[in-house]
Amino acid sequence: MSNASRRRALPSLLAGALGVAATLGAASLPGCATYAPGGSGFSNDTYTYYSTPHEPKNIIIVDTRTGERFWMYEIPAGRQLVVRFYEDQYRDNAYTPAAMRWQEMPIGQKYGTLSNVMAVPDAGCRRVDMDVRPGPEMPTTTADTIIQSPDTDSGESY
User: Fold this and answer.
1) Where are the domains of the chain?
2) What pLDDT does 142 receive?
3) Element (H, E) at 11
């Protein structure tokens, strides 16, 4: 192969290699999840629930063997709750062998650590219910909420 042929083939070769690397890169991120209502687009048992002022939500984990509420979380208006299930984490515990990780965060946050964890019934013995509380509710402000104040440089007073 001549030098001119090699130079013409190089861009195609690089583009192909970058495409393969990008595909493998996305597939090789097993812990990576995008938090959005409707799921992450992967089969990783991650769910995101938005609680808005006009639709404030409660998320309830029900043990289907007994019909009892196993866990409930009242999501403040203006926040989201991300829940992810991991099966067979506690194999020695026949009643609650799965793990559930969760975190409350600002609406729209796509990534983050789910730092709360607890043992829950496995997928065949649990159900996730959602209740909508009567609204509207005022959005809450927390340490990670940005509060914008009015511009007072215009000479007007508030």
Assistant:
1) 33-132
2) 63
3) helix 3-27
